[in-house]
Amino acid sequence: MFRETISLTHNGALAAVAAGVARADMMGVPQCLVVVDASGETLASLRMDGARFLSLRTAQAKARTATTWCSKRHSPPGKPHRAP
Fold first, then answer.
1. SS3 for 4?
2. Helix-strand-coil percent breakdown of the chain, rounded to 5?
3. What does the CA dihedral 18, 23, 29, 33 come to, rounded to 10 degrees?
4. What is the pLDDT of residues 27-77, one digit of tens each?
5. What span, in angstroms and rounded, lies between the C-alpha atoms of 30 and 46?
């Protein structure tokens, strides 16, 4: 059985990081942002000025955990999984 997947390009990963930076700036809270692919490998990451040093490791762990959690759930063919 095959499962259709959606891949994220490097431009998409950079756009996701840029959107995260914009939101963090709007909130006034510097963040560490990590975007991973379906296998949990990092595509893009950024530690904003003023973000805590160890926050980047935490963000990486959370992104990888989200990937493994989402991969256990099945979506209908042609429809990407959306976390609740």
1. coil
2. 40, 15, 45
3. -40
4. 999 999 999 998 889 999 999 999 988 889 999 999 999 888 765 555 544
5. 10
